[in-house]
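hey so u asked for the seq, here:
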Amino acid sequence: MLKLLKPAMVATAVVLFSSYTPISNSVFAQTAASPAEHVDLDVVTRIRQEGLHRSQVMDTLWQLTDVIGSRLTGSPGMDEANAWTRDKLAAWGLSDARLEPFHFGKGWSFDRVSLHMESPRKEPLIAYPRAWTPGTNGIVQGEVMRITLEDDDDLETHRGKLAGKILMMEAPRVIAEGETSMVHRHDDDTLENLINFPIPSDATPPVAGARARTHHFREKLNAYLQDEGVVATLYISSRDYGIVRLGAGAAQDADANPGVPSLQMAAEHYNMLTRLLDDERPVSVSLEVEARFHEEDLNAYNTIAEIPGRGRRADEIVLVGAHLDSWHAGTGATDNAGSVAAIMEAVRILKAIGVQPERTIRIALWSGEEQGLIGSRAYVAQHIATRPESTDPEQLSIPARVRDVTWPIQLLPGHARHVTYLNMDNGSGKIRGVYAQENSAVQPIFEAWLKPFNDLGADTVTLRNTGSTDHIPFDDVGIPGFQFVQDRLDYNTRTHHSHLDTYDYARREDLMQASVVIASFLYNAAMRAEPLPRKPLPVERVWE
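ran it, structure tokens below
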């Protein structure tokens, strides 16, 4: 392994930034002195050489997608991915590679699906089963009926009338006019717009118990469909052009009612059945779903490994993560095996060039992100901060993962040890910058870190927030958590949660670029003299 050069021999770049000194556990005040932000260009050069000339990122992506396949949390595919990533990280020389368990619920997988129109004519239809719904035990057939079942009144209206029916549960949708391009890359205008910070609009108070009511009605609906003898339900994809975008049809909790077999259909085929029914033509379909529940182990697992720190700050942690789980129709390449491959490649690069970071660099590959950031929330609760248990009987009647947020935040010893969390989860496009999450003090720091990669297109730091992924549980408890700005490519138009989320839509050059940017960010965070500045701890908003 290479050894680091002595400080006197290292080429450096310096950029001024505003330094913050803690005045409490989570509040930092600006100091008069503003030391230069140090970037070790010798290490950056070695990162670029290893990552751009000897990359293994596509090999990792191929293993996770074409070889292992889809990775729904709790499925055999996810179990295989957990084990493979743990063993691969250990083989690269990372320490303490392990699987950390957390409660999840029952797993689910499917092996076969078919859907055919039998009358008024015969035609194969495009559809996939929704997760956590049962199989059919062979081919079943039924008359198709369009219906609305959104509240208790709807259930009563149709009680006793649905036996043997296959129900279309949603309205049809007009197919959009084709876009000029389904692939999006940032340009100067879109990046400039991203930098402009929008003043937040007036927030509306959260509806107390809304998630509890939604959970209870879904359980009631699934039991109702079973009791009424419904054969199956059909839902329309939210994507056009034959793309099937899907999610879950039932909850994963051990005691959740799975309802009846439920499929997500291509919008064009769903619309066709609707038009036939609107013309009062009898429609019948046959379907078969082979699906299994996995209840031997109600835990799911995060893959964890480390590059140990070597200095006096070795007990401090620089954390990087991406979610390893996916949905089940495609192979989860852009959501999110590409990101997993990039951050695995980043730590491989650091091991390959022989750096010895002062702080510990920890990689975490999350499970359960698609069900509500469950794996990263479990990590935060175990290592960083907790919240008090609810005392509301309505809240206690539903799974903990869907309960309303409680206050105050209760800090664990690990809160002070975690310096930052860096996340990647917006497709497989190249990194164009980073969202600073309204943390003004990190903006000049990140600009300095990005400068050696401006020639690779990474040059934007925006104070905007971005959400819906695994940096949120960290940001919610005052840890500096960040998500990278990426080119979306066809993430929002073709691949996100769809059956087209496959290896073919990932871009080699983009993932190589992302890998070297992330490796440098990790090294900089692990080596800088002070931890990254923190925002004030979040506090509960009291609504009048």
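Residues 107-199+206-294 form a domain with the Glucose Oxidase; domain 1 fold (CATH 3.50.30.30). The first helix runs from residue 41 to 53.
lmk if thats what u needed
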